[in-house]
Amino acid sequence: MKKTIMLAVAFIACISIFAQTKDEKYAEDVQSIDAILNAYYDVISGSSQQPWQFERDSYIHSKNAVIIRLDENGNTNPHTLESEYIPMGLSPRQDFYEIELKRNVNHFGNLAQVWSAFEIRTDPNITSDIRGLNSIQLHYEKGRWFIDSWTCEMESEKNRLVSDFLNEN
Questions:
Q1: Which residues on adjacent β-strands are paired with residue 80?
Q2: In what order do the strands lie in the sheet with 76-80?
Q3: What's the Cα-to-Cα distance from 138 to each of 41, 75, 90, 106, rounded to whole Å?
Q4: How far apart are the first and last CA of the chain?
Q5: For 14-64, what is each residue's pLDDT tens digit?
Q6: Is there a smaller number of Cβ atoms within 10 Å at the N or the C end of the chain?
Q7: CA 98 to CA 44: how far, in whole Å?
Q8: Which DSSP state fits 32?
Q9: Alpha-carbon gap, residue 131 to 110, rounded angstroms
Q10: C-alpha count within 13 angstroms, C-beta hemisphere, residue 138
Q11: 3-class SS at 87?
């Protein structure tokens, strides 16, 4: 009898955990600008043993989010979030940590613009010299924040944008 009751309780607990909607699972990620930016860095970072968090990443972005990368000559490579996932899903995951170094937020009404400097590491505790700057646009709708787009440029020998951004007051 005790075994049956224990199994029933375990079954109900599993159903309630796995039956959560995305809104229930990731609601805290989108309640503030800080929360969504922390989730943004969290979903991309992790060890090679951790699975990609595609569902969570998709949830924090708006449906038609655009990603733009600038090369060292200023040329753009715009694409959708879904096309970002394709190469990630096709190759084995490696240890990768995008660590935020500094954030500047401008927030007016339901709009926000975030400048965020980051460093790419293969170990979260060992600094690296691979750095970049994100420009992230967000909007607030239906009680939550969405990332609409982000543009990234990596620091290079001829463009010290992260150093300049970190040295700003």
A1: 66
A2: 76-80, 61-70, 144-154, 131-141, 111-121, 97-108
A3: 15, 23, 29, 10
A4: 67
A5: 444 455 688 889 999 999 999 999 999 999 999 999 999 999 999 999 999
A6: C
A7: 7
A8: S
A9: 30
A10: 28
A11: helix
Between CA 164 and CA 162 the distance in angstroms is 5
CB-count exposure of residue 138 (10 Å: 0-12, 13-18, 19+): buried
Q: Which two tokens stand for residue 145?
A: 């924040």
d(CA 111, CA 141) in angstroms, rounded, equals 10
Torsion angle in degrees (nearest 10) through CA of 117, 123, 125, 128: -50
* Helix or strand holding residue 10 (H, E): helix 2-18
d(C-alpha 51, C-alpha 55), whole Å? 11
| Tokens read off for 84 | 């970002």
Strand residues in 38-128 grouped as ranges (E): 61-70, 76-80, 97-108, 111-121
Q: Distance (Å, rounded) from C-alpha 56 to C-alpha 47?
A: 17
Closest among 60, 72, 76, 122 to 97, alpha carbons compared? 122
pTM reported for the whole predicted model: 0.83
Q: What pLDDT is recorded for position 3?
A: 52
The type of residue at 87 is P
